UniProtKB/TrEMBL annotation:
One of its GO terms (biological process) is protein secretion by the type II secretion system. The keyword Membrane applies. The keyword rRNA-binding does not apply. Keywords: Membrane, Methylation, Transmembrane, Transmembrane helix. The chain crosses the membrane at residues 12-39. Residues 158-179 are annotated as: Disordered. GO terms for cellular component: type II protein secretion system complex. This is Prepilin-type N-terminal cleavage/methylation domain-containing protein. It comes from Roseimicrobium gellanilyticum.
Amino acid sequence: MKIPALRSAPRGWTLIELLIVVTLVAVLATLAFPLFGYFRKKAQFVSCVSHLRVLHGGFMAHMMDNDMVWPQVPEDIFNSSDDERMWRWYFETLKPYGIGKPMWTCPADVLSSEEVYSTESDFTGSYIPTMFDERPNTAFLWGNQPWLIERGEMHGKGDGPNIVMPDGTVRQGPSLFPK
């Protein structure tokens, strides 16, 4: 008759093994943590560029429906000191083209982002449209005049605000603060 072999009990973690694992996790977390801020800023920049391209498409669609005339802010709104009325006018004008209220704000623009998602605040935006005259194709004839300019340097690079050109490209304009 054969005697069954004794099985050894499963071995647990030793204190040294546990300390090594905890140390490795802490080192990896320490290395990865600063990258989270970088990736958040990069995502905000990409989202901002996306918003500007969507706005360009909305302005282009509006012009195509209106004999290539840039949307003209009514004179009473243009001459008033009420900025909220002008933002609301642009929002209502481009709304039929699928441009929602959040498209007017850069995610890095803390003040406007909070106002957009608040129900009781006035409407503002992060992007300022250029004022063109009412002649057809003026938005294209003014040469390298940008269509939209980001209000401020919100992405912290010091390279200037994002701007949208007539061909739909988004680039950074001249810095407001010399280096």
